[in-house]
Design a protein that fits this description.
It contains 8 helices and 16 strands. It is globular and about 70 Å long.
Length: 289
């Protein structure tokens, strides 16, 4: 079990705010942190990894205290069993795939390296350097390197956002498979709702350093309206008036849909709002989240 109770002053685009949250994560869960940039998601990962110090609070992982401001406990990163994967891979360019994995090990175990190369489909590439790999292959190396540390927590900070759609989908499947096979406890940061829905056991939505919603992806994104023919969460891209009605353009994946707004809708909604769009038969419902 992982329990967090943390505070830390932060600076966002709208000025200073305080990260203040309490969170419990069950062993083996894949939790996604979802929210706008600057809401504190990456800072939370860095505090877990020991790369940033909370102002106050406590981090306890599987019965062991990693941080406690009252007891003045703050384990250094090398004493926390954490695997961390960033968007930019951060591989050592002068090392081969195998050497990148071996360097990350806390104790040398060539059998473990071979197993992870096989698990991540990198066995045939083990002697290549990062410059000779595609983006998807490099990210698989970064994932394998994080896992070879035998972490108690795997932290993934938007690891797939720079990849094309096909590669991203393939690596989502890879992450799910590895997470399940190794029984990892994983915390993912993602802005992609489809990715969040596909990967997550639970989702914590963060706004200005606080968790404002927490539950399954279905509860978090679609729990406001039930018994719908279809529903999705997206952002209002534009609104224009045509005679006595308003037409709003809302993105759906790579497509656009146009929805009629009433005068009441216009009192609550504006361009840039994240909304839930749901339809019962042919009467669409649009509600601000």
């Amino acid at each position: 079990m992982i329990t967090l109770s943390l505070t830390k002053p932060l600076m966002g685009s709208d000025g200073p705010f305080e990260l203040k949250l309490e969170l419990t994560i069950r062993p083996g869960d894949l939790l996604t942190l979802y929210g706008k940039s600057g809401s504190g998601k990456t800072t939370l990962l860095r505090m877990l990894a020991g790369l940033e110090r909370p102002a106050t609070g406590r981090i306890e992982v599987n019965g062991r205290v990693w941080f406690d401001s009252t007891a003045r406990i703050n384990l250094p990163p090398q004493k926390r069993r954490v695997g961390l994967v960033f968007q930019d891979y951060s591989l050592f360019p002068a090392m081969t795939v195998r050497e990148n994995l071996r360097f990350a090990q806390t104790r040398r175990d060539n059998t473990k390296v071979d197993e992870l190369l096989e698990l991540t489909g990198l066995s045939e590439l083990h002697n290549r350097y990062p410059s000779a790999l595609s983006g998807g292959q490099q990210q698989r190396v970064a994932l394998a390197r994080a896992i070879v540390r035998e972490p108690e927590i795997l932290l993934l900070d938007e690891p797939l956002s720079a990849l094309d759609g096909t590669t991203r989908t393939r690596l989502q499947d890879e992450i799910l498979r590895i997470h399940a096979k190794l029984g990892l406890t994983t915390i993912l940061v993602s802005h992609d709702k489809q990715e969040v829905f596909k990967l997550s056991d639970s989702v914590a939505v963060m706004e200005h350093g606080k968790i404002v919603r927490h539950g399954t992806a279905l509860e978090v994104f679609l729990g406001l309206v039930t018994s719908n023919k279809f529903s999705f969460v997206s952002t209002i891209l534009s609104i224009r008036q045509v005679d006595v009605i308003w037409l709003a353009v809302i993105g759906v994946g790579n497509e656009l849909v146009e929805v009629v707004f009433s005068e009441k809708d216009m009192q609550e909604l504006k361009v840039g709002d994240e909304v839930l769009v749901a339809s019962k038969a042919f009467n669409p419902i649009v509600r601000k989240l």
